[in-house]
Write a structure and sequence with these properties.
The structure holds 2 protein chains of 2 kinds. By secondary structure, chain A is of the alpha/beta class. Chain A is built from 16 helices and 28 strands. The N and C termini of chain A lie far apart (about 55 Å). By secondary structure, chain B is mainly alpha-helical. Chain B is about 50% helix and about 0% strand. The chains are: A alpha/beta, B mainly alpha.
Chain lengths: ~550, ~80
């Protein structure tokens, strides 16, 4: 069993009636998808890809929202030996023009051979492939053959080597210039093995419950591939259904005796504040053994709020755990110890800010709580280094670097960037943190990145968007993130310099900025401040000094 | 037309969701399809409506087809209060 195809075949052959995924959709009955059905529908996709002349090793882009076809098309691409890559679907708020232009750029870098989507989205995709393009086939779901001819084990996917790339995962940056993280079968198997050990995965007992989108590493690896490849049931709901009715997560755990869920930090606050008790009548959460906080900075306060809200439904205090993860390491880098709360260190605030060292705080001095993300997985080495690449002592903050047997093969078609991220065999994460007693504490980011509700946003991308608005001059906008205690995630703040004096004119400009960013990016913008010329702090080379502007904003405007 | 519903919801949206207290939304302004209110804030509106007007909006109805403007939301509330 050396590839994804072999693994799927194994369950199809030996346990075809076992349910792989319970698909939940608001207003519909749950749909239990067995390995037999998953394999056969995937085989139909694989045969369609062959008919369309797609070659093994070529990239197939999948554009779906939450839909069984996404799962079939993904596994169909795998069985065909092609490389699937799941992209987000167009949302209600995003302008189709922006989506189209991002998609066109992505296609020009990734050079996929085919795109699979719904019939009513075909026209958008066609426009993105109008000019000279690598795309030879746009395949719509109507076109998929209804019954595979053979559903046998001779699909080209069985001929792939474990070291071949099995999928691309695009998870950060603007859509167009996203880096496609290319992962091999072997890397993903290695990750799953180490992660399973760390969380003591038991295929006989564990049930994973997830609402996470599959275009994101946490959803793709933990909330999809891990359960399917390990033969344990997954209860999967749409992120949109969850956002409108977060109680559905608790209901699903109770109905299916769910045991493990991965969540980004904001989801703890979101559930704690928005789930009404009347929806939880009869709900029993005692089966939930691990809720793992991952993909945003982890906050002790968020865990507390979540626990307080759900303890009366049988939630055990030791259920809440943490992890540090990234797509470049397939997924998990660390995992906190099971059956106990993650360690929380009370750190001297002044020393932390001024000396960049995490020293225990003395009685009566201002402190901050920093929660551990746990110890490295057994296949991953973690070190913290300074600017010169030298390892620093425990508790000294530096850049986190990692080494493992589950690293990305490359950033797809981006050789320059791949080389830059690696230094003497260590992958530089761009995250700051410190080590203490073998556990990693993540404290910030070297790279200019804002994480809003688990979405990675680059300030530069938003600044570029803002410069498109008439009346805003290039170099006159600064974007940064400020943590919001209530929501458990970062808020984006935009500062724009303008000569406008009239109050109404300034409000109008702020409104324009809000609308433009909201319609052309994955996030909704809230805090826009119009300031006088020369307010924005720049570096000696004339670049926007985001950290300095954030400090100035917090001191003067917030 | 009810005199109380719109101002109350306007204040809730502008202060709690948009972080712009004091702003007046026009009653025909698209709130959901424009992206002004993002998907994670929709549930806040349904909870606010439930608490203040005793009208339940089911989560399957939380989309721009059910209401997209203050005026439409007011009509929905009034029709269910009857």
């Amino acid at each position: 069993m050396s590839t994804f195809s072999h693994r799927l075949w194994h369950y199809f052959q030996n346990d075809p009636e076992r349910v792989s995924i319970y698909l939940q959709e608001a207003g519909k009955d749950d749909y239990p998808l067995t390995y037999r059905n998953l394999y056969q529908r995937a085989a139909a996709y694989a045969e369609t890809f062959a008919q369309e002349g797609i070659e093994p090793g070529e990239v197939i882009v999948l554009i779906f929202d939450y839909s069984p076809d996404l799962l079939y098309a993904f596994w169909g691409a795998v069985l065909h030996g092609a490389i699937p890559s799941i992209l987000p679907f167009l949302t209600e708020k995003l302008t189709p023009e922006r989506y189209l232009s991002d998609l066109t750029t992505l296609i020009s870098v990734t050079r996929p051979a085919a795109i699979v989507t719904y019939p009513n989205f075909e026209n958008v995709v066609k426009k993105a492939t109008d000019s000279e393009t690598s795309v030879r086939a746009i395949i719509i779901t109507d076109q998929i053959i209804s019954t595979p001819k053979s559903a046998h084990s001779r699909y080209p996917g069985f001929e792939r080597s474990p070291l071949d790339i099995v999928l691309l995962q695009h998870s950060s940056g603007t859509t167009g210039l996203q880096k496609g993280v290319a992962l091999s079968h072997q890397s993903i198997f290695n990750q799953i093995q180490s992660l399973s050990t760390a969380i003591k995965l038991d295929p006989k007992r564990d049930v994973i419950v997830s609402w996470l989108p599959l275009y994101h590493d946490m959803g793709l690896i933990a909330g999809f591939l891990l359960p399917v490849l390990c033969g344990l049931p997954l209860v999967l709901m749409s992120p949109f259904d969850w956002a409108k009715a977060p109680y559905r997560l608790m209901k699903a755990v109770s109905d299916y005796q769910g045991t493990i869920t991965w969540l980004p930090n904001f989801a703890y606050n979101f559930c704690a504040r928005r789930v009404r008790s009347r929806y939880l009548d009869g709900v029993d959460l005692s089966s939930w053994r691990s809720i793992i906080n991952c993909s945003e900075p982890v906050r002790w306060e968020s865990h507390q709020a979540f626990y307080e809200s759900f303890k009366e439904y049988g939630l055990a205090p030791n259920t809440l755990q943490t992890s540090y993860a990234m797509a470049e390491n397939t997924f998990g880098v660390t995992q906190s110890e099971l059956n106990q709360p993650p360690r929380v260190e009370k750190v001297d605030q002044e020393y932390f800010v001024k000396k960049r060292v995490a020293r225990s705080s003395k009685e009566g001095k201002p402190f901050i709580n920093i929660m551990s993300s746990g110890a490295p997985l057994n296949n991953t080495l973690v070190r913290v280094q300074n600017q010169d690449g030298q390892i620093v002592a425990d508790r000294v903050i530096g850049e986190i670097a990692i080494q493992s047997d589950c690293m990305l093969s490359e950033y797809y078609h981006r050789p320059g960037i791949t080389g830059k991220s690696l230094q003497d065999g260590w992958f530089l994460t761009g995250d700051y943190g410190y080590l203490s007693e073998g556990e990693i504490y993540v404290t910030g980011r070297k790279k200019d990145l804002i994480i809003v509700g688990g979405k990675n946003i680059y300030p530069r991308d938003l600044e570029e968007l803002i410069y498109e608005i008439p009346g805003v001059h290039p170099g006159r906008a600064a974007v940064f993130g400020v943590f919001n205690e209530k929501s458990g995630t970062e808020d984006i703040v935009v500062i724009v310099e303008s000569e406008l004096i009239d109050g109404n004119d300034r409000i109008q400009l702020a409104d324009e900025i809000r609308k433009h960013v909201t319609k052309n990016s994955p996030i909704a913008l809230r805090f826009v401040e119009i300031v006088i010329p020369k307010w924005i702090v720049k570096t000696s080379s004339g670049k926007i000094a985001r950290k300095a502007n954030k400090e100035k904003y917090l001191a003067e405007l917030s | 037309m009810n005199n109380e519903i719109i101002p109350l919801i306007n204040d809730f949206i502008t202060s709690e969701i948009l972080s712009q207290p004091g702003r007046n939304l026009s009653i025909d302004e698209n709130l959901i399809s424009s992206g002004l209110i993002d998907s994670l804030s929709l549930v806040d509106i349904s909870l606010f409506v439930e608490d203040n007007f005793q009208v339940v909006i089911d989560d399957t109805e939380l989309n721009a087809d059910t209401f997209d403007t203050l005026k439409e939301l007011e009509a929905l509330i009034l029709s269910r209060q009857e």
